[in-house]
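Encode chain A's predicted structure.
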Amino acid sequence: MLKVTVFSTPPRLIASLGMPNTTQLSSSCATVCAPALRISSSPAAPSSPMPVMITPSALAPAHLATERNSTSTDGRCQTYFYLAQLRLARKHGLPVILHVRKSADQLLKGLRSVAGPAGAPWRGIAHAFNGSEQQAQAFLALGLKLGFGGALTFDRALQLRRLASKLPLNAIVLETDAPDMPPHWIYKTALQRANGEPQGRNEPAELPRIGAVLARLRGLSTEVIAAATTRNALDALPRLRALCPPEASNHAS
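Encoded structure for chain A:
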């Protein structure tokens, strides 16, 4: 398993940009740009690295549009660290995984800024994509894949379903975001939960059923969807291939 130190304070985060353990990054699958829910003023931080499969980074403006006014997180701080993460990804030749939630334009701006006008395409995934078709095309033009998960299974998700049906198949990866983003067969409304019905557990085992929904939307077999989305995931995260069983890699080839 790879290791990464997760910091909890801005000073530690700033220090982390010096990357004393850059060898860990060089062997990682990706840099994960995840949302910052809170910046703590506590000096405490983990004293030892945590084992993870892919190396997460600390801050990105993933929830910038919704969190800037609802938490103490400074939007400028999020943007600063998001750009720093992108530069680290470029430096170490890593893909990026971007959590996209009402922030597609800000994330796209950062990708263009760091890549520069003649920069090489990015590799990675716009995770939990829920933007417009124009934004989808912009991410694809920069080299990223788009992640679709449990939200795709709801009949009312008309825009998301339209995109999943219309976009090129080589643009799509499937994900669960477990335990978040439950598919419709697991999700319970607030009223149901208030009445004592437990929320179902979302986990990676739901991926085949999510894939079956995508297959129906596109009029394809589940086998075609499985092979294509696996191939797309390996293209977005090339070092993931080493973690896949041989039959999965061969099936996607």
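Strands lie at 2-4, 31-33, 50-52, 55-56, 96-99, 124-127, 145-148, 172-174.
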